[in-house]
Inverse folding.
């Protein structure tokens, strides 16, 4: 079944080495695995540095266009930094991720749990936390970033920001013509209900369901994923892994996740579109 699911598949959320923590694979190994499986693309994500430049080196060495990159707006790149975003987009970034580990929504939870480090990165202090809104409106930098993503035809992903911030980002993207991706909406730091996800999808957002969120979020199951993609429709949903943790290689992980979602009740044609057509459309492949 792995080969069947993965032919033409796109995983838009994979972590690799080099990183601040040990990872299952480095970029070249991931690329070779994806090519061998017949996949069309994988997007490499780093919480700390832009991935856009390093994937080009791998593609060039393999003489294949298989890996794509982006930039995550944590403290290590200056947070909500339009200059860093524009540079990454000029270099071919496909996805701009809003703050993850440095988002106030995530960082406050980490501090409350007594965590000083998350995925190898220092947890920020309260004065360093990043938010994309000032009250109910996006900050000036956040608005500029939305505009840049729209201008370059890239994807703005919501990272680990709060549900209220996600709501504001979706509205701004709809207003400015930017593509908005809701990262792992069932993940423990956001955990949106299916009704909330459906409302966001009606306003143009696409949901990204990840295998790692199922593993790491209490009471989250593939049954919820199957229910969500059948309700929202495959044009508003993608399946990804968010893998790269030691012991979690992404390519076999994506095949296993797709199999589990289908067994949970999602139609095969729905699962297949969430693996192929919809992510390819997002990335304009």
């Amino acid at each position: 079944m792995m080969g069947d699911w993965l032919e033409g598949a796109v995983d838009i959320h994979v972590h690799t080495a080099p990183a601040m923590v040990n990872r299952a694979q480095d970029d070249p190994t991931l690329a070779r695995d994806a090519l061998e499986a017949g996949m069309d693309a994988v997007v490499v994500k780093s919480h700390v540095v832009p991935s856009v430049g390093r994937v080009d080196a791998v593609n060039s060495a393999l003489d294949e266009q298989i890996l794509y990159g982006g930039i995550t707006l944590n403290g290590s790149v200056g947070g909500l930094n339009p200059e860093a975003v524009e540079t990454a987009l000029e270099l071919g970034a496909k996805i701009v991720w809003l703050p993850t580990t440095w988002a106030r929504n995530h960082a406050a939870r980490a501090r409350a749990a007594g965590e000083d480090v998350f995925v190898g990165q220092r947890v920020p202090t309260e004065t360093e936390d990043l938010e994309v809104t000032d009250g109910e409106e996006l900050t000036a930098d956040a608005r500029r970033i939305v505009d840049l993503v729209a201008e370059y035809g890239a994807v703005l992903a919501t990272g680990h920001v709060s549900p209220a911030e996600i709501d504001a980002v979706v509205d701004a993207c709809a207003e400015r013509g930017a593509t908005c991706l809701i990262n792992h909406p069932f993940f423990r730091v956001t955990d949106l209900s299916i009704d909330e996800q459906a409302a966001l999808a009606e306003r143009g957002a696409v949901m990204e369901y990840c295998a790692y969120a199922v593993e790491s979020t209490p009471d989250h199951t593939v049954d919820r994923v199957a229910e969500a993609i059948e309700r929202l429709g495959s044009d508003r949903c993608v399946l990804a892994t968010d893998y790269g943790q030691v012991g979690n290689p992404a390519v076999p992980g994506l095949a296993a996740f797709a199999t589990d979602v289908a067994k949970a009740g999602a139609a095969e044609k729905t699962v297949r579109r969430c693996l192929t057509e919809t992510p390819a459309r997002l990335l304009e492949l």
Residues 163-176 form the longest helix (14 residues). The mean pLDDT is 96. The chain has one domain: 2-283.
